[in-house]
Write a structure and sequence with these properties.
about 130 residues; three-stranded antiparallel β-sheet; mainly beta; five-stranded antiparallel β-sheet; globular
């Protein structure tokens, strides 16, 4: 697991922009060195309803990156707990059991993408706590 809080990163001009007058500014949440080599398996825009959670699970062959667009997400990764807000991101590695919950009154919206090394791993659901 690696967490990237938006507040810890400054906006910088995108590499294709003039540094003197950029049109696009970016925050680098994760770089190539932070991610597994492999194939992007999925890119999802997801919504977790107020008071809801998804089941604890892990992926045998997929690293996932979650980027929070709206709301406050509470994640448990193994024994670690982290709270993510708009602009925050987290990388979850293969075999790390994870669960997201939304204790708030508004939906959490997030983008998640998965990178697979291509060895054909499964998603393993741990069940409800």
């Amino acid at each position: 697991m690696k967490t990237s809080f938006a507040r810890d990163h400054e906006f910088v001009p995108a590499s294709h922009e003039s540094p003197l007058d950029p049109g696009v500014w970016k925050k680098v949440l994760f770089s190539q060195a932070d991610l597994s080599a492999g194939v992007v398996q999925m890119v999802n825009w997801a919504r977790l309803g107020a008071g809801k959670h998804f089941a604890s699970h892990y992926h045998e062959d997929m690293q996932e990156v979650f980027i929070i667009l709206q709301g406050e997400a509470h994640l448990q990764i193994g024994t670690d707990r982290v709270v993510l807000r708009r602009g925050d991101a987290i990388r979850i590695d293969p075999h790390e059991v994870h669960r997201m919950s939304n204790p708030g009154t508004d939906d959490v919206e997030y983008v998640v993408f998965g990178v697979s090394s291509g060895v054909g791993g499964r998603t393993v659901v741990m069940g409800e706590e």
